Amino acid sequence: MDQYLFAFAIANVVLWAVYFKSSWNGDRQRAFAPVFASLAIGAFVMIIANFITDLFSILALLGLAALFAMIPFYYGRSKALLAVFLLFGIIEFFYFANFYGAIFYLTIQAFAIGTAFGVVSRTTLKPVHGKNKSIETRRDLVHVFLGTVILALFLLLGFSFAVYLTMVLIFAGYFINSFVSRGKKGISGIFFALERPDELYGLGALYLAIGVSLLLGFVHTLGFMIIGIVALLLADPIATIVGMNLKGKKLRYNKGKTVFGALAFFFVVALLCYPFVGLYSVVFGAALAFVESYFTQVDDNISIPAATAILYFLSFLL
User: Fold this and answer.
1) Which residues pair with 258 in a beta bridge?
2) Residues of the chain scoring pLDDT < 70
3) Pick from 122, 141, 156: which residue ends a domain?
4) Which residues contact 39 (CB under 8 A, 6 or more apart)?
């Protein structure tokens, strides 16, 4: 057995013990459920969806998924433990990514699955209603900027390197959001200007990190990756801005969404992605516009990437 993997296994056991001890006096079911859920869903993904037979790799990646499920528990509770868990998770993630190339995308899947269930331990994946127009516009513009940057990485640097670099950016943002922007003055004020007042601090950034990592982990061709990035980071915020500013007819199946917003989403995906995937852009644009406007009980930073991944796998059956 690799000595580093053995050390990671021992450290994971210690961190698990710390986590369970920390959460023992609280809502145990709410604290424990995300860890076990990430293990169960992670096992399904890694064994069934990826046809892995290496038991040790499965166990190591499930441990990584569980570790990331624990991290959001310490948001606003213990900076020291949050730092320990997050730094150890980052080190372990990049160790797997660098030295076990065959499971590179599985490490991303482990991060996405674990973090998603970790967020459930602190809050909900349901979107916030009654949004502040000024704050939402600022958030949407940041999304468009990030989408443009990530899209440029894939177009200029190549697929594999862009995936790796995007994960570096995700972890850098995760770290900064957790420890640097704690005040409301100076540079930190920029971060707080993007936060919804009735949400856990940093929740929006976590949603976005989960969404992008779902794309990186499950979509493995350039054209469909571009669809996912455009839909999540360009079409969705543009649709929100259009919907808030053009008070047109409401959708029949969702009175909280407008026809103009849905059309904006569709045309952004269809037009920007057509040079890369042809008519798939039209199909994906229509399907994802429907998902974004219909499945409003789940935050669209989660539903859009999940739907993109499902459509990506279904495209191989056609």
Assistant:
1) 250
2) 1-5, 24-34, 42-57, 76, 99-102, 121-133, 135, 179-202, 254-255, 318
3) 122
4) 62, 65, 66
DSSP string, 14-35: HHHHHHHHHHTTS-HHHHHHHH
| Owning domain of residue 47 | 1-122
> Do residue 141 and residue 21 come from a single domain?
no
For residue 165 the two structure tokens come to 């670099």
Q: Answer for the pair 57, 100: CB distance below 8 angstroms, yes or no.
A: yes
Tell me 1's DSSP state.
-
First and final C-alpha spacing in the chain: 42
Q: Helices 259-277 and 236-245, interaxial angle, to 10°? A: 150
Same domain, 112 and 52: yes
Q: Could you give the 3-state DSSP secondary structure of residue 264?
A: helix
83 and 179 in a common domain: no
Residues 109 and 141 placed together within one structural domain of the fold: no
Q: Which residue, 89, 122, 155, sits at the end of a domain?
A: 122
- Confidence (pTM): 0.84
Give the integer Cα–Cα distance in Å for 59 and 72: 22
- Total count of domains within the chain: 2
3-state class of 250 per DSSP?
A: strand
> Which residues pair with residue 57 across a beta bridge?
none
Residues 47 and 180 in one domain: no
Contacts of 160 (CB under 8 A, 6+ apart): none
85 & 101 share domain:
yes
> Scanning the structure block, which residue is given the tokens 């991060």?
111
Judge if 67 and 189 occupy the same domain.
no
Give CB contacts under 8 A, 24+ apart, made by 39-45. Answer: 39/65, 39/66, 41/113, 41/117, 42/66, 42/109, 42/110, 42/113, 42/114, 45/109, 45/113
Q: What is the pLDDT of residues 138-161, one digit of tens each?
A: 777 888 888 899 999 999 988 888
Q: Which of 93, 98, 84, 29 is nearest to 65 (CA)?
A: 93
